[in-house]
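Lab manual, section 2.4: Encoding a predicted structure.

Procedure: take the sequence of the chain (290 residues), apply the prediction step described in section 2.3, and record the output as structure tokens. A sample record is shown.
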Amino acid sequence: MSTTFTIDTSTSRAHPTPAPMKRLTVPALRQRKINGQTAEPIVMLTAYTARMAQLLDPHCDVLLVGDSLGQVIYGLPSTIPVTLDMMCNHGAAVVRGSYHSLVIVDMPFGSYEASPAQAFENAARILRESGAAGVKLEGGEAMAETIEFLSARGIPVCAHVGLTPQAVNALGGYGARGRSQAEAEKILRDAKAVEQAGCFMLVIEGVMEDIANEVTASTSCPTIGIGASANCDGQVLVIDDMLGMFERVPRFVKRYGNAADTISTAVAQYAADVRSRAFPTTDQVYRPKK
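Recorded output:
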């Protein structure tokens, strides 16, 4: 049995409710790609809280607890200041709020680059404290040894090549990668290196479409596109971007809702009702029973 958290409508608080074990596994996800083809594309979204995990879980194959929470949740200027404590805590919340999706957690900047041993210690902590199934880390050839080290010791790794947000200072911004021949060749080398090192899945972010197509066709592990190609084996977006929580979003985002306007409208009505004393009404206050 696994445990998920449902909202008790009488108290608006989360209580654990046992549910049959239906969670996707790393081997099952990897086996979606057969002979270079994925018949059923992988659906992946970011999640940072238990309640959002509950809402996304029935529709997703993978929930990524992304270090994008630095900007989305904490209002930080980039992912660089995100801490290991943040990732462990939000990872645990997402695991508690789901029972079907595979949950993976981003390793934050500075938690894995120094050595494979450092990466193992911190990845083990993430899995131990969150209950997630795997970790994601950025980097290609430079991280191949670390990915191999983790994979050999039972820690599933999702790799990430192309535009790597943790390297924004070195890259000089968030522009698409692979426009030059040299950069395109590096992305292809990075993808091959992490595949050979044993990653079970590969995120390709912000690269030219033809490069994403070539990586997808030439690797045995599933590829997940974000600003890459519709031919990738799956897709991922930041949930807040997809729901329209921010005014500006990257070019590769398609908005499937306008949650910001919905929230603003509701709060404006609430504020007006409070100021006019239209809220609360007799329906929302406690009086002696007659």
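Check your result against the sample. Residues 140 and 190 are 4 Å apart (CA to CA).
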